């Protein structure tokens, strides 16, 4: 099923993001995680797109295996990194051939060791260009989504630039948007308000990453330009040498954050799982018991 149809019929829409493991043992572990999360009946899952050819093949293999073996609708991330138009079309043709229906069109981050994004020869510089390429060449074969950045993309000079880029993605054919991770929900609601004022009407799904490791989340936020509220950072500092306590706090905070988002009208939650199940299971189980969306 295409994600646009899922979003029309499922509220709230809960989804999980995974990344392709580098080893066969990692794939086995990932499917164990998926099995644990399957009982929560996610609306869909997504698999990130690696920078290398073998990783990209693993993405496509995982998407088809997840859908075939679990029945869960799966989406492939798809980036411009290191790919010409011919490369992109070849990959998309392969997706058509193996039955992938949902794609998240992204520019992608610069390769490791590079600080600026350089498009491939005859490639694209922006996610909106990739989305336009997909819809122009494949029509409604794919349901295409895009990314958005409530706190601003690292390369954006001001907030309204992010809204303009999001609008360009929707004009190019994006049928939903998933946000970068954030920990202060005010950023999400402010972005949605500005997006609606700019004429963006597609669902905007908040992306939430449960905190499981203090150093890891600090590294991730530095990389993507998100911020950790001072009160949250202080709680992490109190627990930095207590890994289990960090996880417990991460579950509690994410549960409260998700409950607030859903109570105030968010269409669902996209969980950045980091291929782990325990925190996401705890958070989603609590949300299903609380049903905060019924208070909106």
Give a nutshell description of this structure.
The protein has helices at 3-9, 24-38, 53-70, 85-98, 127-138, 159-172, 185-197, 214-224, 230-239, 243-263, 278-290, and strands spanning 13-18, 44-47, 74-79, 102-106, 143-148, 177-181, 204-208, 268-272.
Task: Give the percentage of residues in beta strands.
Answer: 5-15%
What is the overall pLDDT average? 93
Which topology does CATH recognise? Answer: TIM Barrel
Number of helices: 11
N- to C-terminal separation? 27 Å
Which stretches are low in confidence, meaning pLDDT under 50 for 5 or more residues running?
none
How are helices and strands ordered from N to C? HEHEHEHEHEHEHEHHHEH
Instruction: Please state the overall shape, judged from the principal axes of the Cα atoms.
Output: globular
Number of strands: 8
Overall radius of gyration:
18 Å
CATH class: Alpha Beta
Under the CATH scheme, the architecture is Alpha-Beta Barrel
User: How many domain units?
Assistant: 1
Structural class: alpha/beta
Query: Biggest β-sheet: count, sense, barrel?
Result: 8 strands, parallel, barrel
Share of helix among residues? 40-55%
Which strands sit side by side, in order, in the main sheet? 1-2-3-4-5-6-7-8
Describe this structure in words.
The chain is an alpha/beta fold and 296 residues long. It has a single domain (3-285), classed as TIM Barrel (Alpha-Beta Barrel). It is built from eleven helices and eight strands. It has helices spanning 3-9, 24-38, 53-70, 85-98, 127-138, 159-172, 185-197, 214-224, 230-239, 243-263, 278-290; strands at residues 13-18, 44-47, 74-79, 102-106, 143-148, 177-181, 204-208, 268-272. Strands 1-2-3-4-5-6-7-8 form an eight-stranded parallel β-barrel, surrounded by five helices. Strand 3, helix 4 and strand 4 (102-106) form a beta-alpha-beta unit. Helix 9 (230-239) packs antiparallel against helix 10 (243-263) and helix 10 packs parallel to helix 11. The protein is globular and about 50 Å long.
């Amino acid at each position: 099923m295409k994600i646009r149809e899922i979003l029309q019929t499922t509220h709230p829409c809960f989804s999980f993001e995974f990344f392709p493991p580098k080893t066969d043992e990692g794939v086995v572990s990932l499917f164990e995680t998926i099995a644990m999360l399957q009982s929560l009946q996610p609306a869909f899952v997504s698999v990130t797109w690696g920078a290398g050819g073998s990783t990209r093949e693993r993405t496509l293999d995982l998407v088809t295996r997840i859908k075939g073996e679990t029945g869960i609708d799966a989406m492939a991330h798809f980036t411009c990194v290191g790919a010409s138009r011919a490369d992109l079309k070849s990959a998309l043709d392969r997706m058509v051939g193996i039955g992938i229906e949902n794609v998240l069109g992204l520019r992608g981050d610069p390769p490791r060791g590079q600080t600026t994004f350089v498009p491939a020869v005859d490639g694209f510089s922006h996610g909106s260009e990739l989305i336009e390429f997909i819809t122009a060449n494949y029509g409604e074969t794919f349901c295409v989504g895009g990314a958005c950045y409530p706190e601003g993309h690292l390369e954006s000079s001001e907030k309204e630039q992010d809204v303009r880029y999001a609008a360009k993605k929707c004009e190019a054919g994006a049928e939903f948007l998933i946000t970068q991770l954030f920990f202060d929900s005010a950023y999400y609601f402010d972005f949605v308000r500005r997006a609606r004022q700019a004429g963006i009407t597609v669902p905007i799904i908040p992306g939430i990453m449960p905190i499981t490791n203090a150093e890891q989340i600090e590294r991730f936020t530095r990389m993507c330009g998100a911020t950790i509220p001072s009160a949250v950072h202080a709680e992490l500092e109190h627990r930095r040498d207590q890994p289990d306590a960090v996880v417990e706090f991460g579950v509690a905070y994410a549960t409260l954050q998700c409950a607030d988002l859903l109570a105030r009208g968010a269409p669902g939650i996209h969980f950045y799982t980091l291929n782990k199940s325990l925190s996401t299971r705890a958070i989603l189980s609590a949300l299903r018991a609380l049903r905060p969306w019924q208070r909106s």
